[in-house]
């Protein structure tokens, strides 16, 4: 009998008995997996949903509450591996709020309980809910006596030896004013950085990887050998207390300030809020900064600030009535993979997309997820961070139960597949070998020119013939960062393309000639056509950067387009530079030598200079051919730049001296010209992008299309970057919120002044401009000793 999908309202009493029994068993199982084995079997959100269902059923049928109900206990029994210590004051859990209304209800309940007038504000603290494990540390006369995990809330595990290895936890309390006896409580956690390093070490040692920082922290704290714990950089935030011999503060804020004075780390993002609105504002702010904090948080904890009021509010079985955890929407959920669709991109790449049963993830309903490429579906792709096969090598099949993740603005990802729930008749996905377009042209792997991309991406070979590629290209042309034409999106382009009115970019600007054809069509009334033509005509004058980006050249993205526009200022100068570069492109022989690992630029130059200096009748043809010994002849050249690694590379690549000489000689005549080198040397260009740019303009079809487009539109000259500002050539990172301008304005200004703007802080960063709320980037900057400025200092600096 399975009632698990019936809504709580519709359960009969008998069904409720079954459900409560099932939930008690299931929740106990999950708690054991989570707390004792540090290996959760479901997501936090799924677990919360089970607890909630249990609670709702109990509220409807109070008589059915079981003695072993999960609502009556927290955590899991302490394991037998450690000595047990009981908590004099129970370690409570927190009630959860999921919506703004839940938070208002919490405050309303507390106000009513205290008999405060409804509108009277109840000041509360708001602080991150750290996703770690709670710990209680006993201090007597300022000296650490023991440390205990939460366990079931009444008794926990004695982890003193391990806790003594945690740098954030003082062995003796600093300062003064601490009570003779106090249990300081807080959260043990692992930073993202420490987590990544730990998993790397686990991998090197051939040990299993931890699923997330919380499990890794729990696993680290509960090591039987403290020497192992000592190698794991655990951190600790103090935020609460248990048994105390004397009152030491009158408010939550004051108490946490005491902890800081006694030598504990406390959380900088704890604030005092006068009302619900400011609690929610802090919640949203932390939600936005969540990824930058450097450690996992899963919500925000609100606590009534006044300790006398806390005392009066007291507790309800497992929770204090004076605190609540406002959870972030779950970032993971399980759902079903309904279908795998193949989309054709602008460059012909066949991109698989997962269609999933709609599910709420991270507060948004998700029905599509990225599948990257065919190796990803097959479980053969490697995870960028861990270097391990994705999903432990498991493939994805239509009908599979999958775990989907949506964090921040990132496209939803499939992070796991539940193979034990796989339908019996499922089949491995066969990735198509032809383009899904009507032409069904073969789609082949290889031919990519990005790093390692050649093997992964399957591309349609139809190029300009493939209607899907053409349509994608047109969509790119009108997209927001390119021509940005209002009212002209994929749907309209699809129509115009199907009716034969728009086949290439220039046709968009000739659309008005077809007014009569369009007037009769559904959805194209006179007013909307007038608006459309007006929007199109507005874009006949277009920024050079947008124009270049709109051409849709491989490897020439928005940023690079901006760099090109500022470097050349006018279309004419850009065009001339491209032609000049094209006239002396590196040839195949040159590229072969350049690509040899071990043959650095200095060795290559020396070799080519040598080849260029030899005449046809010179020494190198004669005796070289006689001996045919690459190593010996290389030694005889006496080129000091061509040292052992370079020689080895050449010996490995060429079987005989004759072919080496032929290639080197050919390469000497194929050296890239100055124009090519200058183009490739532009910021963010590089040789791959430079080659792609030249390839694009070498193609007659593209030349024609660009010329026809230029007959319709006029690229506006760009503003050149300043070469003489105080920040020219420097790399700048903006973090935190800015007050006098938006982030985009700040970036644009910096670029105008000749600076480079980066998204993350590294050793290459010169300046970090930090506004209020700056988090991990600011921390990194001070760690690396990078110059940090406020917005006002930056403004003064750049004048
Ligand atoms: S206060 C009686 N503050 O969340 C209140 N708990 O779901 C004691 N947690 O068991 C807890 N960050 O492990 C508090 N800033 C914070 C917290 C926090 C994380 C954990 C703690 C607690 C669990 C409740």
Automatic annotation (TrEMBL):
Alphabetical list of SUPFAM superfamilies matching this protein: BRCT domain, DNA ligase/mRNA capping enzyme, catalytic domain, Nucleic acid-binding proteins, RuvA domain 2-like
Active site: 129
Keyword Repeat: no
Gene3D superfamilies reported in the protein's UniProt record: 5' to 3' exonuclease, C-terminal subdomain, BRCT domain, DNA ligase/mRNA capping enzyme, Helix hairpin bin, Nucleic acid-binding proteins
GO terms for biological process, alphabetical: DNA repair; DNA replication
Record InterPro entries: BRCT_dom, BRCT_dom_sf, DNA_ligase, DNA_ligase_AS, DNA_ligase_CS, DNAligase_adenylation, DNAligase_N, NA-bd_OB-fold
GO molecular function per UniProt: DNA ligase (NAD+) activity; metal ion binding
Protein EC: 6.5.1.2
SMART domains: BRCT, LIGANc
Catalytic reaction list: NAD(+) + (deoxyribonucleotide)n-3'-hydroxyl + 5'-phospho-(deoxyribonucleotide)m = (deoxyribonucleotide)n+m + AMP + beta-nicotinamide D-nucleotide
Annotated PROSITE patterns: BRCT (PS50172), DNA_LIGASE_N1 (PS01055), DNA_LIGASE_N2 (PS01056)
BRCT domain sequence ranges: 722-794
Alphabetical UniProt keywords: DNA damage, DNA repair, DNA replication, Ligase, Magnesium, Manganese, Metal-binding, NAD, Zinc
Name under which the protein is recorded: DNA ligase
HAMAP family: DNA_ligase_A
UniProt binding sites for NAD(+): 44-48, 93-94, 127, 150, 187, 303, 327
Annotated positions binding Zn(2+): 435, 437, 460, 466
One of the record's GO cellular component terms: cytosol
Necessary cofactors: Mg(2+); Mn(2+)
NCBIfam families named among the record's database cross-references: dnlj, PRK07956.1
PANTHER family: CHROMOSOME TRANSMISSION FIDELITY FACTOR 18 (PTHR23389), DNA LIGASE (PTHR23389:SF9)
């Amino acid at each position: 009998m399975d009632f698990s999908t019936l809504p709580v309202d519709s359960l009969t009493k008998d069904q409720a008995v079954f459900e409560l029994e099932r939930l008690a068993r299931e929740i106990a199982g999950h708690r054991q997996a989570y707390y004792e084995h540090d290996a959760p079997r479901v997501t936090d959100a799924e677990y919360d949903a089970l607890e909630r269902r249990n609670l709702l059923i109990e509220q409807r049928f109070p008589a059915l509450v079981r003695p072993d109900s999960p609502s009556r206990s927290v955590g899991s029994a302490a394991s037998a591996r450690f000595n047990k210590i009981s908590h004099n004051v129970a370690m409570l859990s927190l009630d959860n709020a999921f919506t703004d209304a839940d938070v208002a209800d919490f405050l309303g309940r507390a106000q009513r309980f205290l008999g405060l007038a409804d509108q009277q504000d109840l000041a509360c603290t708001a602080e991150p809910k750290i996703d770690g494990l709670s710990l209680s540390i006993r201090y007597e006369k300022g000296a650490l006596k023991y440390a205990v995990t939460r366990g079931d809330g009444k008794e926990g595990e004695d982890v003193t030896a391990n806790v003594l290895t945690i740098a954030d936890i003082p062995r003796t309390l600093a300062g003064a004013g601490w009570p003779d006896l106090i249990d300081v409580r807080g959260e043990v956690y692992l930073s993202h950085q420490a987590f990544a390093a730990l998993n790397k070490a686990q991998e090197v040692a051939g040990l299993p990887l931890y699923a997330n920082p919380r499990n890794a922290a729990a696993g680290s704290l509960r090591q039987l050998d403290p020497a192992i714990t000592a190698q794991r950089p655990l951190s600790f935030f103090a935020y609460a207390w248990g048994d105390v011999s004397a009152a030491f503060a009158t408010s939550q804020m004051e108490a946490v300030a005491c902890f800081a004075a006694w030598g504990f780390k406390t959380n900088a993002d704890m604030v005092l809020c006068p009302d619900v609105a400011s609690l929610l504002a802090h919640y949203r702010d932390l939600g936005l900064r969540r990824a930058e904090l450097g450690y996992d948080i899963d919500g925000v904890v609100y606590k009534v600030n006044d300790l006398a009021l806390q005392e009066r509010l007291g507790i309800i079985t497992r929770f204090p009535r004076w605190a609540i955890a406002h959870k972030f929407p779950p970032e993971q959920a399980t759902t079903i993979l309904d279908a795998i669709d193949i989309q054709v991109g602008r460059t012909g790449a066949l991109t698989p997309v997962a269609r999933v049963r709609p599910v709420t993830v991270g507060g948004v309903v998700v029905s599509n997820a990225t599948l990257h490429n065919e190796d990803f579906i097959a479980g053969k792709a490697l995870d960028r961070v861990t270097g391990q096969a994705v999903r432990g090598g498991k493939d994805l099949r239509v009908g599979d139960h999958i775990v989907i993740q949506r964090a921040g603005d990132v496209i939803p990802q499939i992070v796991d597949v539940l193979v034990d729930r796989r339908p019996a008749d499922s089949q491995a996905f066969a990735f198509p070998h032809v383009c899904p377009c009507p032409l069904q042209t073969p789609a082949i792997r290889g031919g990519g020119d990005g790093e390692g991309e050649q093997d992964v991406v399957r591309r349609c070979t139809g190029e300009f013939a493939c209607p899907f590629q053409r349509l994608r290209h047109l969509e790119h042309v009108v997209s927001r960062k390119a021509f940005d034409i209002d009212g002209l999106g994929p749907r309209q382009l699809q129509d115009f393309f199907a009716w034969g009115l728009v086949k290439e970019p220039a046709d968009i600007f000739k659309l008005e000639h077809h007014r009569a054809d369009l007037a009769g069509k559904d959805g194209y009334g006179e007013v909307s056509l007038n608006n459309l033509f007006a929007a199109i005509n507005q874009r006949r004058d277009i920024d050079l950067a947008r124009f270049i980006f709109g051409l849709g050249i491989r490897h020439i993205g928005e940023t690079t387009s901006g760099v090109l526009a500022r470097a050349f200022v006018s279309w004419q100068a850009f065009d001339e530079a491209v032609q000049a570069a094209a006239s002396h492109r590196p040839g195949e022989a040159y590229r072969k030598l350049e690509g040899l690992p071990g043959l650095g630029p200095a060795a290559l130059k020396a070799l080519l200079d040598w080849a260029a200096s030899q005449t046809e009748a010179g020494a190198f043809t004669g005796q070289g051919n006689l001996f045919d010994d690459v190593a010996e002849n290389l030694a005889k050249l006496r080129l000091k730049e061509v040292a052992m690694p370079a020689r080895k590379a050449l010996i490995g690549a060429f079987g005989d001296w004759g072919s080496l000489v032929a290639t080197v000689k050919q390469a000497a005549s194929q050296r890239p010209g100055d124009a090519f080198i200058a183009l490739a040397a532009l910021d963010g260009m590089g040789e791959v992008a430079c080659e792609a740019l030249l390839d694009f303009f070498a193609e007659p079809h593209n030349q024609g299309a660009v010329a026809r487009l230029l007959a319709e539109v006029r690229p506006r000259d760009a503003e050149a970057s300043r070469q003489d500002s105080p920040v020219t050539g420097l790399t700048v990172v903006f973090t935190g919120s800015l007050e006098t301008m938006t982030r985009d304005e700040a970036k644009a200004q910096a670029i105008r002044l000749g600076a480079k703007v980066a998204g993350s802080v590294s050793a290459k960063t010169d300046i970090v401009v930090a506004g209020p709320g700056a988090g991990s980037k600011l921390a990194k900057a001070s760690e690396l000793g990078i110059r940090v400025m406020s917005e006002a200092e930056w403004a003064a600096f750049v004048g």
